[in-house]
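Tokens for chain A. Residues wanted.
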């Protein structure tokens, strides 16, 4: 699913208006109707709705919603923040329509005028929409502060007022919504953790924008979904054998850190690889063999024979001792295939940046935010970090998996945001499992980009299934690994 910029969304609206001979205001009516349906589901008995509108098109949608609610005989009050003599064309049309049915409208020029009525019930934020490029100031900023201080349930229309769509909004005056009702597709700004406190739960309403536009338009941003991940999935051939599904080598674990190796290996074999070998210190072999009889063991100090493996994953729990630095260096130099680089292997790269240029083409690097900051330098904000990640992927011909709630998979200047997963993954072992999954997929012949996208999806989807029987607090990564099979079954 493509994610569009603010300008592209505006162009999509215009394309729909031109191709379907529908007016801008009638398209707005579609949006208002879908918002009203959701709002009606949120109302408790005798609860008052307060709608706060600006004078632009977002305010026009707010007035259209007010008219729909008024005709449903819902108790409400409508405020319009007036900073100019007239509003947008659609605002003026909807203002006349609402006035014509005798709905009371309060025009305010001071934030003090709306303080008391907002203490409870539901507040509809329709101050400003997704077209702004400057931070709110003056009366609009004051009204945002009043809304945020009230005890009401806040529902923002299109986007929380004051938030930018395509760039960082830190420092802005922004409405802190409980729900954000947006239209047709997710907005880029909703996928960044720094905006979490403002967006609440995002509701994406289909308002029937013309599908031809989204098919033609180019975008570097995508949101993974079940459909596009199903198109990546490679079902097994009934005549296949273990040699058909690749041999993966995992270089993981160390004294006191064998859990990382066991988790990565278990996730690897659960993800369909034909054969799996784990390279660990010989002193730790009994832990591995007792935990996972399905995998093979090799002493990490011996020659690993890299050429016989279809994929290699390195990093979980290996430590950063000099011998591990030398091991990573040798693998980077001598591997003829892409490798999966995680955890301590990334930390080694951060401390030995000259090794970055040795990374084999199309390798997959899987840092979380702090690991990536150590690799390239601290980011000013999440948008800056995304730009750094795009540049790093381009310069080093690699697939970068920047882990987070909406993990980014970056390659060839495309950014895929993952939609699966939950906070139950926010604990030790989750990254180790992801390394095992991606290494398994790479061994089975998935391209690096597809292995990364599909691996992150599998990991998150399995966690979502595990959450059905666990809480986010109690979920273990072993619970997640046990659900990988269910994800494959759902894809068939």
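Reply:
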């Amino acid at each position: 699913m493509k994610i569009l910029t603010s300008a592209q969304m505006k162009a999509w609206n215009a394309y729909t208006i031109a191709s379907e001979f529908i007016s801008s205001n009638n398209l707005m009516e579609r949006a208002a109707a879908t918002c009203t349906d959701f709002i009606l589901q949120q109302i408790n008995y005798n609860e008052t709705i307060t709608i706060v509108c600006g004078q632009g098109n977002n305010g026009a949608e707010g007035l259209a919603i007010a008219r729909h609610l008024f005709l449903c005989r819902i108790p409400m009050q409508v405020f319009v923040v007036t900073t100019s003599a007239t509003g947008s064309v659609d605002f003026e049309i909807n203002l006349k329509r609402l006035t014509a049915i005798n709905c009371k409208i309060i025009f305010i020029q001071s934030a003090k005028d709306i303080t008391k009525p907002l203490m409870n019930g539901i507040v509809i934020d329709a101050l400003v929409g997704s077209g702004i490029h400057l931070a709110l100031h003056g009366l609009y900023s004051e009204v945002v502060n009043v809304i945020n201080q009230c005890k009401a349930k806040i529902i923002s229309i299109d986007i929380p007022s004051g938030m930018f769509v395509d760039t960082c909004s830190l420092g802005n005056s922004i409405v802190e919504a409980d729900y954000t009702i947006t239209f047709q597709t997710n907005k880029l700004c909703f996928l960044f953790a720094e905006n979490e406190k403002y967006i609440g739960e995002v509701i994406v309403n289909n308002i029937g924008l013309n599908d031809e536009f989204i098919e033609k338009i180019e975008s570097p941003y995508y949101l993974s979904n079940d459909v596009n991940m199903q198109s990546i999935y490679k079902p097994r051939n009934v005549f296949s054998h273990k040699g058909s599904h690749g041999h993966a080598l995992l270089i993981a674990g160390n004294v006191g850190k064998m859990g990382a190796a066991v988790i990565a290996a278990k996730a690897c074999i659960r993800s369909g690889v034909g054969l799996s070998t784990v390279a660990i210190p010989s002193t730790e072999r009994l832990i591995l063999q007792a935990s996972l009889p399905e995998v093979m063991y090799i002493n990490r100090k011996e020659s690993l024979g890299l050429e016989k493996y279809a994929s290699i994953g390195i990093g979980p729990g290996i430590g950063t001792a000099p011998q591990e630095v030398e091991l990573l260096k040798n693998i980077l130099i001598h591997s003829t295939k892409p490798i999966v680089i995680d955890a301590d292997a990334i930390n080694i790269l951060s401390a030995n940046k000259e090794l970055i240029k040795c990374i084999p083409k199309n390798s997959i690097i899987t840092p979380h935010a702090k690991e990536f900051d150590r690799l390239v330098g601290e980011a000013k904000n999440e948008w800056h970090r995304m730009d750094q990640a795009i540049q790093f992927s381009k310069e080093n011909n690699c697939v970068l998996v920047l882990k987070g709630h909406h993990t980014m998979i970056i390659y060839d200047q495309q950014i895929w945001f993952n939609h699966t997963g939950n906070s139950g993954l926010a604990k030790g072992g989750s990254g180790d499992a992801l390394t095992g999954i991606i290494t398994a997929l790479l061994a089975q012949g998935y391209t690096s980009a597809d292995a990364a996208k599909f691996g992150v999806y599998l990991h998150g989807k399995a966690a979502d299934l595990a959450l059905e029987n666990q809480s986010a607090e109690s979920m273990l990564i072993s619970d997640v690994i046990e659900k990988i099979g269910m994800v494959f079954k759902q894809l068939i």
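The two ends are 21 Å apart (CA to CA). Residues 62 and 336 are 59 Å apart (CA to CA).
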